């Protein structure tokens, strides 16, 4: 009895989407940007534009034209007498080809 073997590639370039894309960033402003074929994602702090392009194209099967990356700074927070910080993060604004669409709500 022969088992079906599945090829496992240990190439770090394969399947990087789960390491790069953290979550879609859905706000009122980003919802307006979706009408212009621009989508906002919270991404890993170590990711670069090429990795973001590859991850979005792999995950959503769309053609990415442009990526803008923004490092959001940390913010101070006060609750009662306790002072602290809300951590910063990196977000990416991804422009996709005209006529293509990413549907986050499925």
Overview of the molecule:
- The protein is an alpha+beta fold.
- The chain has a domain of 65 residues: Alpha-Beta Plaits, CATH 3.30.70.
- The chain contains three helices and six strands; from the N terminus they run H-E-H-E-H-E-E-E-E.
- A four-stranded antiparallel sheet has the order 1-2-6-3.
- The longest helix is centred in the middle third of the chain and has 12 residues.
- The protein is globular, with a radius of gyration of 18 Å.
- About 5% of the residues have low confidence.
Total beta-strand segments: 6
Percent strand equals: 25-35%
What percentage of residues falls in helices of 4 or more residues?
10-25%
Q: Identify the CATH class of the domain at 17-75 and 91-96.
A: Alpha Beta
Shape: globular
Main sheet overview: 4 strands, antiparallel
**Count of separate DSSP helical elements:** 3
CATH superfamily of the domain at 17-75 and 91-96: RRM (RNA recognition motif) domain
Could you say what the CATH topology of the domain at 17-75 and 91-96 is called?
A: Alpha-Beta Plaits
Q: What class would the helix/strand composition place it in?
A: alpha+beta
Question: How would you summarize this macromolecular structure in one to three sentences?
Answer:
This protein has three helices and six strands.
């Amino acid at each position: 009895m022969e088992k079906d073997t599945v090829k496992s590639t240990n190439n770090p370039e394969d399947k990087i989407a789960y390491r790069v894309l953290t979550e879609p960033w859905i706000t009122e402003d980003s919802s307006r940007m979706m009408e212009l074929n621009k989508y906002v994602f919270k991404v890993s702090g170590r990711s670069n534009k090429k990795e973001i392009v590859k991850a979005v194209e792999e995950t959503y099967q769309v053609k990415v034209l442009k990526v803008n990356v923004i490092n959001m700074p940390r913010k101070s927070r006060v609750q009662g007498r306790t002072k602290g910080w809300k951590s910063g993060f990196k977000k990416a604004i991804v422009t996709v080809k005209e006529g293509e669409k990413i549907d986050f709500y499925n």
